[in-house]
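Researcher: I've been going back and forth with a colleague about how Glucose-1-phosphate cytidylyltransferase might be arranged in three dimensions. Neither of us has a model we trust, so I'd like an independent prediction. The organism is Aliiroseovarius salicola, in case that matters for your notes. Sequence below.
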Amino acid sequence: MQVAILCGGLGTRIREETELKPKPMIEIGRRPILWHIMQYYSSFGHNDFVLCTGYKSDVIKQYFLNYRNFSQDIEIDLRADTVSNLEQTEVLPPWKIRIQNTGIHTQTGSRLKQAMQHVDDDLFLATYGDGVANIDISAVVAHHKQSGKLATVTAVRPSSRFGELAIEGNTVTSFSEKPQTGQGWINGGFFVFHRSVFERLPENQNDIELEKNVLEELSEQGELSVYRHDGFWQCMDTSREMELLETYWENGNAPWKRW
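Model: Here is an independent structure prediction for Glucose-1-phosphate cytidylyltransferase. You can compare it with whatever you and your colleague have in mind.
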């Protein structure tokens, strides 16, 4: 299935990182978080991507145009006008990537509306370009097909803003850094859509929000199915969350790493 990834936002809540690049290009383990997301979908066999870009779209284009050179150490001989790799050649992922500039100030629903010109089938997957999880994508797709609805959203339990303490008397017996809360579900950002959801939206309108307009309307119509995910999920809205994801990766226990 094709995967549409929303990559066009301004990333204002992590401005210190997004002055020079879009948020999906912020690196975790020396790779953009967008790369991690694409690798995750690829591990389930989904290798056809539509990147809905906007803010600093050229940075994303340049990364994939020069993917091999960005991914490896290289030697440049200016006199000979040659470039060679200094390490064993990386096996390139089997991705087809369509990069579409959907506008800097375009809202998420309107971005997906524009993406329909590059989506070939009736069903497609969609997600945001700033979050990772260990969601079973195959199970989400199977759940969606069984539901008979126009769309499926993955529900997750958000992480607490603060560390959780277990206390006995005057002693802390355990400390958990930003654990998942036991109450409430939120939009986890891993979707399955039927293309008709967006084809019926008005043309040339850039202010349609996926959450406020599209998902709310689908829920009112009884056309929004939910897949509940109790496992790992983490967005990257702040520098603290970026550092948390980096720590997972550096420690070799990134829950989203399936490759």
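Researcher: What would you highlight for our discussion?
Model: I'd start with this: The first strand starts at residue 2 and ends at 7. After that, consider the following. The chain has a mean pLDDT of 90.
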